Amino acid sequence: MTTPILIILIGFLIFLGHYLAQLFDRTRIPDVVGLLLVGILLGPVFHLINPAAFGQAGRVFSNVVLVFILFESGLEVRFEQLRSAFRGTLGLTTLNFIVTTLLVAILAQIFGGLDFLSSFILGSILGGTSSAVVTTLARKVDILPQTSTTLVMESALSDVFTLAVPIALISFYTGSSFNVATLFTQILSSLIVAILAGIATGYLWSVLLNRVPTLLKTRFSTPAFVFILYGLVEMMQFSGPIAVLFFSITLGNVALLRPWGLGRFLPQPTEHVELTAMEKDFFAEIVFLLRTFFFVYVGMSIVLDNWQLIALGVGMTVLLFLVRIPVVLATTDLRTPQFDMAFMSVMIPKGLGAAVLATLPSQRGVPSGPAIQTITFAVIMATTVLCTILFFLVEKRRILGFYALFFGRNRPLDAASSAPQQ
User: Fold this and answer.
1) Rounded CA gap, 345 and 322, in Å?
2) HSE-up of residue 133 (Cα within 13 Å, Cβ side)
3) Given this model, what pLDDT does residue 207 score?
4) How far apart are CA 230 and CA 250, in angstroms?
5) 123 and 104 in contact (C-beta within 8 Å)?
6) Are 48 and 1 in contact (CB under 8 A)?
7) What b/e readout covers 386-422, taking b as 16+ CB neighbours within 10 angstroms?
8) Degrees (nearest 5) of the Cα angle 366, 155, 139?
9) Among 92-101, 151-160, 171-180, 193-202, where is mean pLDDT lowest?
10) How far apart are CA 117 and CA 403, in angstroms?
11) Rounded to whole angstroms, how far apart are CA atoms 216 and 72?
């Protein structure tokens, strides 16, 4: 594809993204599906663009999108929402990862012909959720703030598991040392250090914004600092997404943050730091453009080379949505409305992070690497499409009766009916 045609295509995708967003406002059909289909047509169907040509730039682009989305989402989270959602988030993330890993591993051994360790590598790669998809959909539906916070945090926290566990298993498969205690220590330290780094830098940045007024005049000073934070935390082998999320949460709640015992050492911010309406609109437009190209890129990255394994991935997807129901039931508060629980039950899309991890087994010489990659891409596509379809049906209250069979009819129906209990 020549450069002029590529530039024309970029302009066309921007217009398409706006049209699909307006279509969502009218019909509630998520724009993610349309963007993915465009990517599939450009990539695996007509082979107009090869995502491999982007090389390392493709992975950098996906990380930039993730940073912007998490940063913008975290600014809307309040400490009271975080406090009420954090315990449930840990339980939901951990249980969902375990159940997903076990289910995928069993199916991969029985129907995919993968060996024991390869099947668990595949399961751990698919154990998380996509921050880009979850955050996009969670902000477009009327659910409780703590429910939205739980889903956003789950998508970020799951990255800790889906990075540490597959890499450790691949290292063990290829002959490197493996220690369970070391693995759990790595996961815990990655989580704790990232949270502390995000909170500390968010507080210190708020002090700088108050002491150096020129920083407030540049719209990109805060995102630039977020990029530096993300890169430094990732370089130290901890979770950059978690650090970014808690940085933005701290920045959005800095007026309430009074660190005990640190007052004599650190200056207190003089006022609440918050983005102006113009800045929020500016960043919202950037996020819109980035996520438009992101989902097209995901569609282009789908690999369609073994229909038997693709069918297995689709079958895994259906079962993953079914087992998500008891996972949500076991980890949510009794006062959570039926609508919120139904929405949480469909929020298990897999993202580009899983696609990147799926390429590691082949690179490290794992014999079943190509099969792992094909199944992963099939699950990414199937979960994203089915998630958006179920989102539409749940948002329209078409299938709430089905979920009510599992969640109980004595729960409040939606956020409005549960308002007195908040």
Assistant:
1) 8
2) 30
3) 80
4) 15
5) yes
6) yes
7) bbbebbbebbeeeebeebbeebeeebbebbeebeeee
8) 145
9) 171-180
10) 35
11) 17
The amino acid that residue 150 corresponds to is T
Residue 421 has pLDDT above 50, yes or no: no
- As given in the structure block, the two tokens for residue 70 are 């998490």
Asked whether the predicted pLDDT for residue 286 surpasses 90, the reply is no
Cα–Cα distance for residue pair 345/330, rounded to 1 Å: 12
Structure confidence at residue 201 (pLDDT):
92
Q: Is the pLDDT of residue 419 over 60?
A: no
Digit-coded pLDDT (tens) for 328-350 = 999 988 788 999 999 999 999 98
Residue 261's pLDDT is 45
What's the Rg (C-alpha) of the chain? 21
Residue 338 contacts residue 400 (beta carbons within 8 Å): yes
Nearest to 280 by CA among 119, 71, 64, 12: 71
The helix-helix angle for 277-301 and 369-395 (nearest 10°) equals 130
Separation between Cα atoms, residue 111 and residue 309, nearest integer Å: 9
Rounded-to-10 torsion of CA 317, 322, 327, 328: 100
Question: Six-digit token pair at 159?
Answer: 């990255």
Q: How many CB atoms lie within 10 A of CB 258?
A: 9
**pTM reported for the whole predicted model:** 0.76
Q: Are 302 and 377 in contact (CB under 8 A)?
A: yes
CA atoms in the 13 A half-sphere facing the CB of 374: 16
Q: Is the pLDDT of residue 281 over 80?
A: no
How far apart CA 88 and CA 328 sit, in angstroms, is 10
